[in-house]
Design goal:
The protein is α/β, with parallel strands linked by helices and 394 residues long. It has 14 helices and 18 strands. It comes from Asanoa iriomotensis.
């Protein structure tokens, strides 16, 4: 058995999955290097949730109090109509599908907490990307970098994983027929830790403010089957054209988007692979099993996957560990991936008739006593999926 202690392991990607995995690998005695394409760590970002089993993982890292200290603090969520009238309002946890001790925070804050927890234990190489990869773990870095051999290479580089394409070939990404765009915008609505959602046929727009942030975040979710535009300017034009007929605050948000320095655009997609390991290469997080932003479970899958992969490598070794990790994780992944297609149908409505009916139902529900209890039933599938794994103690 090839043991993890002192093994040279390369993690490609310094996102949530990559930094969490690096922490656990170092905890088990590995010599860990993290390579990240970006020139520097990315702060801010959109809000994410830590739910169910992922809370246990963060608690076992001793970082749960730090994560809770930087929660978004969003207090309420409302659905608005084209005039800005609040059709329905509810507390933020119900609005965001959170139960029990689930925590919402900004992606950048969580990444920073994880990265700082690895200080002095993990080597980071920013502005570095894998150019070539052999099954035996030999890596050639881009921009004239030398070749190095690692005992294990882990792709934690997201839905569009270069590690995955080099090791497994192209494919594995399944689009759900929708797009997502997110960026920072001025808080011209004066939101105070509040989220507003405007729904049009095939087009949904969200705006929210969080604690400690002077600006706001705008998110656009919309349906379509055209190929994903390449390049930020083409993506912004594509988004603007898609929302050209929408009302409410959409025109002003689109105008503000032009100045955003953190614009993000992609298809709403899932990664579905028959296997997550080949040779001395394995995958974790979105690179292996992206559940899509519609699932609300990407961050939790990344945290749990990192914990299980590192733990199985430590107990079963570098040869058997990846296979044991997949056996334990796959049922959990399947349960959480099922949330994506179901949720996106509720988040983006297809027709004007569906929008009108939804607004009527929400307006009626908003006036009923005990609405929170009724709405809580909607989040039960999320909670079941978030807890659909029994975590070993490694």
């Amino acid at each position: 058995m090839t043991r993890i202690a002192n093994a040279r392991i390369l993690v490609s990607g310094a996102g949530i999955a990559g930094t969490a995995l690096a922490w656990w690998l170092a905890e088990h005695g590995a010599d860990v290097t993290v390579a990240e394409r970006a020139e520097e760590p990315r702060d801010g970002g959109y809000k994410v949730d830590i739910r169910g089993a992922a809370l246990t993982v963060v608690d076992r890292m001793g970082l749960l109090d730090q994560a809770r200290a930087v929660r978004t603090g969003v207090r309420a969520g409302s659905v608005v109509d084209a005039t800005g009238r609040r059709v329905a309002s509810m507390d933020a946890d119900t609005f965001g599908g959170r139960v029990h001790d689930d925590a919402e925070l900004l992606r950048g804050d969580l990444a920073r907490i994880l990265r700082e927890a690895t200080t002095g234990r993990v080597g980071y190489r920013f502005g570095t990307e894998i150019e070539a990869l052999d099954p035996d773990g030999t890596v050639t870095f881009a921009n004239g970098g030398a070749s190095e051999r690692f005992d294990l290479v882990v792709g934690a580089d997201g839905l569009r994983s270069r590690t995955r394409s080099l090791a497994f070939g192209e494919g594995g990404v399944h689009d759900l027929g929708h797009y997502i765009a997110i960026c920072s915008v001025p808080n011209h609505l004066g939101l105070d830790r509040e989220e507003l959602t405007y729904v049009g046929p095939g087009r949904t727009t969200l705006v929210y403010s969080t604690a400690g942030q002077s600006d706001a975040k705008a998110m656009f979710l919309f349906s379509g089957d055209a190929p994903r535009p390449q390049g930020q300017e083409a993506q912004k034009r594509f988004l603007t054209q898609a929302y050209a007929q929408e009302g409410w605050e959409v025109p002003r948000l689109l105008e503000a988007m032009g100045d955003a320095t953190d614009f993000y655009f992609d298809t709403i997609s899932q990664a579905r692979l028959d296997r997550w390991s080949t040779g001395r290469v394995t995958l974790v997080g979105d690179a292996a099993y992206c559940a899509s932003p519609a699932s609300g479970q990407g961050t939790s899958l990344a945290l749990v996957g990192a914990y299980v992969l590192a733990g199985e490598l430590a107990t079963a070794g570098l040869d058997e560990g990846p296979h044991r990790y997949e056996e334990l994780m796959r049922p959990f992944v399947v349960a959480n991936q099922k949330l994506g297609p179901a949720n996106i149908k509720r988040m983006v409505l297809r027709s004007r008739g569906q929008v009108r009916m939804s607004m009527r139902m929400l307006g009626l529900l908003n006036r009923l006593p005990g609405k929170e209890r009724m709405l809580a039933k909607v989040v039960e599938p999320i909670h079941r999926a978030a807890t659909a794994i029994t975590l070993p103690t490694y």
